[in-house]
Amino acid sequence: MNWLPRPAEGRAWVAPSVLSADFTRLESDLDNMTSAGADFLHLDVMDGHFVPNITFGPFICSALRKLSNLPLDAHLMISRPDKYLEQFAKSGIDGLTIHVEADAEISPTLARIGELGMKRGISLKPDTPLKDILPYLDQVDLILVMSVQPGFGGQKFNPVAVQKIAELVRRRADEGFEFLINVDGGINGVSGPQCREVGADILVSGSWLFGAKNRSERVSVLRG
Ligand code: DX5
Ligand code: ZN
User: Distance, CA 17 to ligand 2 centroid (Å)?
Assistant: First the structure.
């Protein structure tokens, strides 16, 4: 297990979304992003059913495991995450995040992810109210707040995520939880610092980081 604790006060970990990497030369592109200072790699798994797009599954996650020593955090945008937990565990990834809107029993699925030795994550879409994930706050290691409609990289940041992050920070302190707070979608030099300032621990960024001429400069802008 390869993972990171909460970042220092006022800082954030940076998690490039591999969706925006150049898959024709994945190894060198990821090495370059690692040298630029990436802390995690974010892997967007899509099934063409939960979201209107298809990406990759456990097979590619295993290949990514061989290409990188960074903590690998998979974001499952799939309708039946419960059916694939063993396969993802075998691929060697470190964290598995399911959507609260998925067609699965949430608590048992989270418990199984933990039993398989992975960090347990839950995510919610921009239109899903925070109250829908409150029953699971004591059962997760991370919460992934979506700031775009899941399915595609390169969309515009939805500021509804900022309020959700602030509310999660408050509840975590009041109720003594330990989860990390991730934010994903439309993160750039403006939205990233906004999320960090209200307490996001991990900033996921795809197109803005992979599209940069100077990646380490952009990683530093996000990290704070
Ligand atoms: C969207 C994915 C995101 C996406 C982020 O469904 O979950 O991780 O790749 O890409 P940008 O940063 O380009 O919005
Ligand atoms: Zn994602």
Answer: 7
Using the mean position of ligand 2's atoms as its centre, give its distance from the Cα of residue 98 in Å: 11
> For the chain, which residues make up each domain, given as ranges?
13-223
Model pTM score:
0.98
Q: Which amino acids are annotated catalytic?
A: 44, 184
Q: How confident is the model at residue 59 (pLDDT cuts 50, 70, 90)?
A: very high
Please give the backbone phi and psi of residue 188, each rounded to the nearest 5 degrees, phi first. Answer: -145, -165
Tell me the per-residue pLDDT of 2-27, one tens digit each, with 9 for 90 and over: 999 999 999 999 999 999 999 999 99
CA atoms of 201 and 206, how far apart (whole Å): 17
Give the separation between CA 224 and CA 222, rounded to whole angstroms.
Answer: 6
Single out the residue of 26, 93, 31 nearest to residue 58, CA to CA.
Answer: 93
What CATH number is given for 13-223 in this structure?
3.20.20.70
The model's pLDDT over 169-182, given as tens digits with 9 standing for 90+, comes to: 999 999 999 999 99
